[in-house]
Prior knowledge:
Blueprint: H1 10-13, E1 16-20, E2 31-34, E3 52-53, H2 67-78, E4 83-87, H3 98-110
Amino acid sequence: MQTSAIPPTKAAIVPVRMRRWNDRRLPGDGLRLLICRYRPRGVRKSDETWDEWDPDLGPSREMKEQQKRIEELASRVRAGETITLLCSSACVDDAHCHRSLLRELIETAVAP
């Protein structure tokens, strides 16, 4: 079986990463966006590990209605900015986290 080569998109070059909010910042993380519905308890403002918090991008039925914000993030990726989606420290399985859905929505919006 022969597979066709898929040309890399901008999303393949500039990744949308996924981490937990309490994972240490790594070089190349770019914008660290916390996408939990609720702000983590007990974390002082000075100890925040994220650059922005958007509770509306947390898991909800309305998530699909967030297309405008997703397109805004996609345009930042197109411009060459790396975005790292942060979530709860209890979220250990990327495949079952809403971060993977949001990453897919952003990458789909970036694709030509």
